[in-house]
Amino acid sequence: MSSLPAAAERSLCLFEPPYTDLVPIAPERIADLRNVNDWKGRALVWQLTGGDRHSIEFDALRLKTPGLPLMVLLPPPQDIHRITRLLPSVRLMSPRLVLPHGLIDTPYRLRHVMALPPRNIAGSVTDFLIRRGLLKRKDAIREFQRIVELAPQTRSIAMLSRRMYTSRRTLGRHFISTGIPVPSHCLHFARLLHVGIQLQTENVAMFRIASRFGYPDGFTMSNQMKRLTGHRPTDVRELLGWEWLVECWLQIEGVSQ
Predict the structure, then answer these.
(1) Three-state SS for 255?
(2) Which of 109, 167, 193, 214 places its Cα 20 to 30 Å from the Cα of 98?
(3) CA atoms within a 13 Å half-sphere pointing along the CA-CB vector of 216
């Protein structure tokens, strides 16, 4: 397929490595994409063309795993009236992006959009864990978001505690009743999450990114990423998106919800 959305055979597709085509997917197949190993680096693309299959597709998308990104492409302005009743429900599915007609016209452009980092990384990751049911208490929500914000300039939990004007013990106590890993693990993963986003958006040497985030060298950074997420930086560059990286981390930490 050479263009979007006109060349797509169906309104519901998978966008997957090597990100050169849209692959049509039947709504019933979405239920099979539960484990992160089945969908990492992929995204669902839903083209709202006003067709008669939208109700079936909506029911399937409503039950998709929270981590699998969804990008919604709107129809041309003259056809918006055909999907007006559906739009409020689309928002409830927390799509990664809702894109106007004509903004995306090739898989190359869609790949660029998929690699874009969220405007607020800390807020987006925190909201993701809230939707996953892993962050419920206000203090833990606030502190987790702050950890992600501070992670690029923070190398240790002691430094983190000082910057948050609290103690390591207090942080640990707030997190122990949540469904997420301990603060030190959150900090180390948050650093790697920022690394991963840089790997996908900048074509620079790995050692430069490692240095930017306080790692002594690319080898050390790569080993820590492998230990915490099961993947090397080369994998993260090839598999776009950040949600799958969060899910891999949670899986290794033994977190499930």
Answers:
(1) coil
(2) 193
(3) 4
pLDDT digits (tens, 9 = 90+) for 182-203: 999 999 999 999 999 999 999 8
In one-letter notation, the amino acid at residue 16 is E
With both helix axes pointing from N to C terminus, report the angle between 138-150 and 183-201 in degrees, rounded to the nearest 10. 50
Lowest mean pLDDT among 47-51, 58-62, 239-243, 251-255: 47-51
Q: What is the residue whose two structure tokens read 């050479």?
A: 2
Cβ neighbours of residue 32 closer than 8 Å, sequence gap 6 or more = 38
Token pair 């990384």 in the structure block, residue: 121
Arithmetic mean of pLDDT over the chain: 89
Q: β-pairing, 97-99 with 70-73?
A: parallel
Count Cβ atoms below 10 Å from residue 80 Cβ, excluding itself. 15
Amino acid at 157: I
> Hey, is 34 helix, strand or coil?
coil
What is the average per-residue pLDDT within 38-49?
93
Return the closest-CA partner of residue 42 out of 73, 21, 27, 57.
Answer: 21
Q: Indicate the angle between helix axes 121-131 and 183-201, nearest 10 degrees.
A: 120
What structural domains does the chain harbor? 12-115 (3.40.50), 121-253 (1.10.10.60)
Residue 67 has pLDDT above 70, yes or no: yes
